[in-house]
Design brief:
Order of helices and strands: HHHHHHHHHHHHHHH
Distance between the termini: 33 Å
Largest sheet: none
Radius of gyration: 20 Å
Helix content: over 70%
Shape: globular
Number of strands: 0
Strand content: under 5%
Number of helices: 15
Length: 359
């Protein structure tokens, strides 16, 4: 998706030059939230300020939300049908394979020295011991400042790329609007307020892209709140892979199962709000932030922890699946397809057909 955004904004429309777009990718990978969503907002802000960013953000995420809402409605009305049960039995295997593949892909790019490997293993172990992933991420950020103090970062010599049209006043205005919205939601419905706050909390700590949200959802929604069981959340994650947007749109599925259409809308807005606010606030100052040794050290450690989070989620979901010979073969087939970088849509479709026929 990021590659397509580049093709549209740099090559076709000439809205941004190559270097400005690269700065945006660097920024959006450094802050929490779905990278592609952030890049869409970044392009909008660079061309038309805060309004442009908001319109790009909504435009990019709206199709995924609408489709997820339709799928959620269909799920609640049909998940007891035998063929649908077979379908999701197979898609649960797909979720395990996707998370394991994501852990492998990020780990392959991240594991550069023993300190990163140790950070990943320690974070995974702490999660298995029941430590909150939010605490693990916070500790990892602090530990990274110490562990990677002798690490050389090439970006320290980067030059400024210009000032964004967004300003501190816009950031402050947006913060006030969000605060007012939360207060209004609290007065209207404490349940919807709790849903919104939980989704915002997840997004706020989702360093490493949309996949980072999945382990946090598992912890908060299944382990802490008990709103859904692991199998149901896996179904929502599988549906999130069907949509044309970030997998974090699974939040809309959770919201719909909890509180219907209103819950779905609130959850979808909340899961994208903190990262958009951070993007708005940090853009004018990113040239200084990206050359901060403390920022780069903390980010390096957090990304190592993110691999641990993915491993934890993959293993936790794997224990939920009732494994048999067919499911193991399906897991191997899907894993090979993902390793070969076959389009995820084809993988989902083929897995779905096999599941309905065999499982």
């Amino acid at each position: 998706m990021v590659a397509y955004i580049k093709e549209l904004s740099v090559n076709r429309k000439k809205w941004l030059d190559e270097d400005t777009f690269k700065d945006g990718v660097s920024l959006c990978q450094s802050i929490p939230g779905a990278t592609a969503m952030q890049m869409a907002a970044y392009v909008g802000m660079k061309t038309n300020g805060l309004i442009g960013g908001l319109l790009s953000y909504v435009g990019f995420g709206l199709p995924a939300f609408i489709l997820m809402l339709i799928l959620s409605i269909a799920y609640t009305n049909s998940h007891g049908i035998p063929q649908v049960i077979s379908l999701f039995n197979g898609l649960q295997v797909l979720v395990v394979a996707i998370l394991a593949n994501a852990a492998y892909s990020f780990g392959r790019d991240t594991f550069k020295n023993y300190k990163i490997i140790v950070t990943t293993l320690v974070s995974t172990s702490l999660l298995w011991l029941g430590v909150s992933p939010f605490f693990v991420i916070a500790v990892a950020a602090l530990a990274g400042i110490v562990l990677f103090k002798n690490t050389h970062f090439a970006s320290l010599s980067a030059q400024a790329s210009g000032t964004a049209k967004g300003s501190f006043k816009q950031f402050l205005l947006l913060s006030l609007i969000i605060t007012a919205g939360l207060i209004g939601l609290y007065l209207a419905s404490i349940n919807l307020f709790s849903l919104a706050v939980l989704m915002m909390k997840i997004d706020l700590f989702a360093f490493g892209g949309a996949f980072a949200s999945i382990p946090l959802m598992l912890h908060e929604i299944v382990d802490v709140k008990g709103w859904l069981d692991s199998k149901t959340l896996m179904d929502g994650i599988a549906l999130g892979q069907v949509t044309p947007g970030p997998i974090v749109i699974t939040a809309a599925f959770v919201g719909y199962l909890m509180y219907g259409l209103t819950g779905s809308l609130i959850a979808a807005i909340a899961i994208f709000t903190p990262s958009f606010l951070i993007l708005t606030g940090i853009m004018p100052f990113y040239d200084r932030v990206k050359t901060s040794r403390y920022f780069l050290r903390a980010s390096k450690s957090i990304l190592a922890t993110f691999v641990g989070l993915l491993l934890y989620a993959a293993l936790k979901f794997a224990f939920v699946v009732p494994w048999d010979a067919v499911r193991v073969l399906l897991l191997l087939g899907v894993s090979i397809a993902l390793f070969k970088k076959i389009d995820i849509l084809y993988v989902v479709i083929i897995s779905s057909v096999i599941s309905i026929i065999i499982l």
